[in-house]
Amino acid sequence: MSQEISSGLSESRVFPPSEAFLRGCGDRPHVASLDEYRALWTRSIQDPEGFWGEVARGFDWFTPFTSVLDWQCPDARWFDGGTLNACHNCVDRQVNAGHGDEVAIIWEGEPGWPSDASSAYAAAFSSSDRALSARHGHAVRHLTYRHLQEETARLANALRSLGVRKGDVVTLYMGMVPELAIAVLACARIGAAHSVIFGGFAAPAIIDRVADAQSRVIITCDGAWRRGAIVPLKANVDEACTGAPSVEHVIVLRRTGHDVPMRAGRDHWWHELVASQPSTCACEPMASEDLLFLLYTSGSTGKPKGIRHTTAGYSIFTAFTARMTFDLHPGTEQVYFCTADIGWITGHSYIVYGLLPNRVPTLMYEGAPNAPAEDRFWSIVERHRVTHFYTAPTAIRAFMKWGDAHPAKHDLSSLRLLGTVGEPINPEAWMWYHRTIGGERCPIVDTMWQTETGGHIITPLPGATPTVPGSCTLPMFGIDAAIVNERGEELPANAGGLLVIRKPWPAMLRGIHGDRQRFIDTYWSKVPGMYVAGDGARRDERGYFWIMGRIDDVINVSGHRLGTMEVESALVAHEAVVEAAVVGMPHEIKGTGIAAFVTLGPGHTGRAGDALRKELQEHVAHEIGAIAKPDMIRFTQALPKTRSGKIMRRLLRDIAAGNEVRQDTTTLEDFTVLAKLRETEE
Ligand code: PRX
After folding, report:
1. pLDDT at 305 over 90
2. Distance of CA 215 from the midpoint of ligand 1 (Å)
3. Is residue 682 pLDDT above 50, yes or no?
4. What is the pTM of this model?
5. Alpha carbon nearest to ligand 1 atom 13, residue
């Protein structure tokens, strides 16, 4: 469990920035010592307006901003008076500065070459990429800034032709193809907000998000490749459309080439729609606080929250933090590979928006880490001479399990920096990553942040911060992070408390779409005047942060965030289930697995057993997506409740973890329930 993973009180190994890293930095890293970090951090906190004003002036503005910050807790307005465009700063700016022919995005597809050579998608490959793909035996594409400019302009014009206007929300439900990045940027180009839904989510999850955002247009693919099979994205959209009446148009990218029904008037092939569009389209001037995107994430209730991020603050913070955390230098040999999907915030911030303004090629891949074989990532690193590799602890634990032979087959000497994100990393996985992948020469940046924070809030800086396995170390510039009690009082070293941020920062969420009260209740009410992240944490004597895990009903499964209530609602939607309680449990690979305690309705009790267990897992996958499948389902005659009727989740967590029930059970309504829970078969 995360608490155990990151308890780390006895962790004493300290790794200063390696000589090899410092030598490879060309001139010098952006931040070259802990003293330099401290001085800059102090300035960023004492004079946020001076600090962020300077950073923001490094961006291209159509109209300069007139004020840096207007803060009326919980509402922040950053860079008011200015207009800019996020796509311009990612793409056009590079073209205008004479870098149009440099590579912006490198892409590796599945299932590879030559199968792609004969597919419907082949037309997307340039002739040099065809030759390269044939040589590598993998489908490879290189997209330059100029290419991105033309393709985003074409799609932007196509969206306009369907009536999309500034302020509309366009839903994207696609696989990891470059066109997903193009679609994101095309929306930004015309000032439409995007709402990307992870391609692993099922139709009901699409319905909820489309309805909440009132999207009229969905962009999807005929399918996505994953482990040699096709994920039926278009079929899921068709199913979702029956429950989402707001949808008027569906744009379909032909990726796999398999047959999908197209509904006349509603469905349009991407290639047909863009073919007739001009390859120029001026970037729409957007006010700093105009909505850039919505991204739905799980919270404590069954309904996902549409997190709102705005144009200037988000773009500037992600570009700045990417530059600092990954020590990016344009025009060098750097190649950056983040293994996340653009459907999550990591992909938004650190594949697209944070990377492109830094003019370092960003590599995206389609498929799975273990297909065609468990060395997929190492093969990519070797062939593309990847210098920066950013992944989740759950993936690292899987690599460890698959064995050292896979990385050993490849030349990983190009790697200079490693990163992790999404959940606490256990020191054992950290050490394996450090030795086996990093060759003991690459700094590891354990980046702590959230969908809501937009970008990194606590992380080492590779040229400055000595790292300690399991700790995300020190706050990012401008982030006034602290550990406090519920009265907002800062706690002494090593005392566990609430992780809060006491001052506004540019990429902070601007709200939950359509739910002001939930925004206030979730983040701003527990400790007045402070942003409460929802994580428990402590700070050690050095001032380093150790994240202990979520303190709400959110669980972190393989670094993906799920609400226990979402899974519970999916379970009770099954005819056999009357009540369900879902909790996290320790899981060797996923960090946290999903444990479900289920009571069956009359007439179904006889069905308790493996067949129904499997049926319920499939049912949850169909309602939410495969990531939400419970790892363990226990059938029980009753759930333990307090006298006021609340399910005693902590008690269930203990049972799921196989621990002795330690907590006080005096409020338990019916003691026989506990005995029954223990008795029920696994
Ligand atoms: O619990 C923390 C955990 O992931 C949560 C945020 O999830 P999400 O919004 O999906 O964003 C994940 C990718 C940024 C946090 O509240 N978390 C994220 N990074 C770390 C982490 N826990 C410990 N260490 C991290 N580096």
Report:
1. yes
2. 28
3. no
4. 0.94
5. 422
